[in-house]
Amino acid sequence: xxxxxxDIVLTRVSKAYGGQIVLQDxxxxxxxxxxxxxxxPSGLGKTTLLKxxxxxxxxxxxxxxxxxxxxSTVFQDSRLLPWLxxxxxxELVCGPGCEARIADSLARMELTDAADKRPSELSGGMQRxxxxxxxxxxxxxxxxLDEPFTGLDEELKDRIAGxxxxxxxxxxxxxxxxxxxxAEAQRYADEIIKLQDALGKKEERS
Length: 206
Fold this sequence. Notes:
This protein has 206 residues and is α/β, with parallel strands linked by helices. Helix content is 34%, strand content 24%.
C-alpha cells in the first residue's frame, strides 16, 4: 500500500482531563484513501479525538499511520486570520508559487469574488467555505475535519460537499470528518464509525 494512503490505526487510546475520562481504550482504524465519518453523542470525545490525531493533545495508547504525512484540517470555528484577506489566508498556508492552486480552491468553494475580502466582510457560511478552501490549498494527503459543512444551506452543501468528496476520492485522500448529521454521513462517507462502538467501558457521566 502507498505509504501516504495507509490506514491510521489507534490502539487503546485514552484521554482524561484531571479525573474526567473523555476517551477510554479506543480501538479504531481509519482506512487509507477513503472518506470516513465519525458520529456520536455530544460529549463523547469526537473533537478530542481529532485534536489527538493533529498532535494538539497527548494521550495514552498508540497511533500508527500518520508518520510523514501532511495533514490539512478544518476546525469547528473557521480560524481565518482577521487582518488578512481570504486569498492571503490561503497564501499563508500554501506558500509561494501556488497561485493556480489557490485560484482553484477558491473557485471550488464558490469564493472567487470574495478573494480580496477580509473575514469580517464574509457571512458565517462564506467563512466556513474559506476554511475549506484553505485546507484544499494546503493539499494535505490526510484531511481531518470537524463539522466541515456547518452553516451551509442544503443546496449549497450538496454542491460544495459533492465537489469536495468527488475530488478527494479521485485523489485517494484519507479523510476523517466529524458530523452529527446521519444523512450527511450516509451521503458523503465511504465508511461510518459510531464512536461509542469503538470505545471500551466508560465511566458513567452526568
